[in-house]
């Protein structure tokens, strides 16, 4: 069987050496462009009894069309043997949103292989009932489309978890760097983990906000150097937003809310509920639930400098010394 071409000619499904099948870009794709959208083949919403999970899942599969059955059974199984249906779901399922306990199978999305520096991001579109995949950076014709199956960490940590949970040895670009470059990358990512932990300390955010904001900027620099443009980027901007909001800084809060919304739009599209929420906070930062725990940095949205984009503006934004 030859490659499977999609209708919009953005990608082709074809065998990839050492990976089974994957999606290859058939043209240049821009950041934020919708690559594909797919409704679930089925969900796990009705599977509530762990003792009968495999049996109940088998009944769902039996009720699929022949094409649906073939699509499901052709997916990779990380743990072949007993309970094949359950293990295919565990190997390929995606939750219906970040906080959902319900999973689903999307046969095409499941063909997107892993990379530690992915060029795409998946998200559940609740309003339309579909999984969407957007490009998070420029993708060249002939490049494999990839997602990240896990977030961050140095190469040995990533590879260990990928082997444990997904059963493969990662040979992506980030994991295949020359020794000195890989060592430098690992050092940056270990620092990123420490920065992320420090940023998440609520006492530090309250009592040492300047340092917390400086940590956000340092983490942003690492993400830029590492080529990280997936959901980690909008989450970072949201952290910066929360720091500003906690100290009644409407000017910076509005800027960080916009940056968060823009970055999430690239990852999830304008229909994302998270994007809509951040657009609302951009317009009215004071509507944030933890607004003005202190008034240490009190400002108004009108205080945002007009000369955005230059060095002085960046120093203002991150409260760096002139």
UniProtKB/TrEMBL annotation:
Top-rank lineage group of the source organism: Eukaryota
Boundaries of every SET domain copy: 2-150
Short name of one Pfam family: SET
Family matches, as InterPro entries: SET_dom, SET_dom_sf, SET_domain_protein, TPR-like_helical_dom_sf
Gene3D superfamilies: SET domain (2.170.270.10), Tetratricopeptide repeat domain (1.25.40.10)
PANTHER family recorded: SET DOMAIN-CONTAINING PROTEIN 5
Protein name listed in UniProt: SET domain-containing protein
Species name: Epicoccum nigrum (Soil fungus)
Lineage summary: Eukaryota, Fungi, Dikarya, Ascomycota, Pezizomycotina
């Amino acid at each position: 069987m030859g490659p499977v071409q999609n209708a919009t000619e953005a990608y082709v499904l074809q065998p990839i050496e050492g990976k089974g099948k994957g999606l290859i870009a058939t043209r240049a794709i821009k950041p934020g462009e919708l690559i594909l959208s797919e409704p679930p083949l089925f969900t796990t919403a009705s599977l509530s009894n762990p003792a009968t999970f495999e049996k109940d899942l088998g009944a769902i599969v039996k009720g699929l069309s022949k094409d649906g059955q073939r699509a499901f059974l052709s997916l990779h199984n990380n743990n072949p043997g007993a309970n094949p249906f359950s293990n295919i779901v565990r190997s390929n399922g995606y939750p219906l949103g970040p906080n959902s306990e319900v999973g689903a199978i999307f046969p095409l999305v499941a063909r997107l292989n892993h990379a530690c520096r992915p060029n795409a991001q998946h998200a559940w579109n609740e309003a339309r009932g579909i999984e969407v995949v957007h490009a998070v950076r420029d993708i060249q014709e002939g490049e494999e489309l990839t997602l990240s199956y896990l977030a961050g960490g140095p190469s040995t940590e990533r590879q260990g978890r990928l082997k444990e949970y997904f059963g493969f040895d990662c040979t992506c670009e980030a994991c295949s760097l020359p020794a000195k470059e890989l060592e430098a990358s690992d050092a940056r990512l270990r620092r990123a983990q420490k920065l992320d932990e420090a940023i998440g300390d609520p006492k530090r955010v309250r009592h040492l906000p300047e340092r917390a904001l400086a940590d956000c900027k340092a983490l942003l620099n690492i993400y830029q150097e590492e080529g990280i443009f997936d959901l980690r980027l909008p989450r970072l901007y949201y952290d910066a937003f929360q720091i500003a909001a906690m100290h009644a800084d409407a000017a910076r809060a509005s800027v960080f809310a916009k940056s968060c919304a823009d970055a999430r739009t690239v990852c999830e599209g304008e229909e994302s509920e998270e994007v809509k929420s951040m657009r609302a906070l951009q317009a009215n930062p004071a509507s944030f639930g933890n607004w003005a725990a202190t008034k240490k940095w009190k400002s108004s949205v009108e205080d945002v400098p007009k000369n955005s984009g230059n060095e002085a503006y960046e120093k203002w934004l991150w409260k760096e010394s002139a």
